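Work Package 3 (structural annotation) set out to generate three-dimensional models for the target panel prioritized at the project kickoff. During this period the team completed the workflow that converts sequence records into discrete structure tokens, so that structures can be stored uniformly alongside our sequence database. As a representative example, we reproduce one entry of 308 residues exactly as it appears in the project archive.
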Amino acid sequence: MRVFNLLSAAFLFAAATSCTLDKTDYEAEISTEVTEYYEFKEAVAINSGSYKISIEALNGTFYKGYNEIRLKVTNTQTNESLKNIAVSFLPIKTNSDGNKISCPHQYNLTYQNDKNYYSGYSVFTAESNPSSEWQLYIKFTDSAEKISINTTIQVKQQSNKNLNMTSFVGSDNSEYIIALIAPQKPKVAENELVTGIYRYVEPTNPIGNFPDPSQFIFEEVSGYILQLDPRMPEPSMGNHSSPNNRDLVQLNDKFYRGIVNYTMTGNWTLNFIMLNENSKIIKGTEVSKDFTPGVEGTKSELFIDILF
């Protein structure tokens, strides 16, 4: 199928580039200020007929990587919020050649009764640029009237490396995305490391009317283990690691959680080996545990760089 083939090519390209060992200006990187955001602000507002849709994100910005979203629907004629209705959310990126792909997202949003908004997430896999753009397709029903709305959004570069992501093709030929979710700003201590792991589901149904959500499904992977070996790759650190790290396992919230112990500030590489529910390696390799002062540390074939 065309959508799948193009997505496969994009993932293979990302996998090749994300796992290339580039020489790094570490001194310039460690001077970077890491900003932590707590406040949700309106990132985009859509007015259509009698309705206003407001979508909030941290810092009022959509970033490449994991984004928690909060959506509110208001009837502008009655000035009332629409509560406990079915709201769907579908992000679509249109490339320069006209082909359309999506990203991990929560299609059916969840109404939070005590907070009066619909919650979900989107893991945007690329920034917006002049040759490709992201659009959000939103549907809901009000008094038996079906409303469909879409709008173009801007997805910006994620400057906080602690929220990096990676995409790759596993040994099972499936396309995966791992996105860091927390901590935004680590401490020199044991930190809870939170990630999401997502897998593209190849469509089995014929393509329906665009945008057909059955063609853009990503599932939250269940029952995997993400083995963790954090190391400081820069030559002056000599492949230094740390004790008391814990592999990431999935908890009830569907996120994968573990412990990473950062013993000092600076550049760290999170080296991973990802195992499926049958303990088969899907991606990742062991890295050397040798102390190698003056030599840049090697990385697993599955890794994410962070900085704090």
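Residues 1-23 have pLDDT under 50 and may be disordered.
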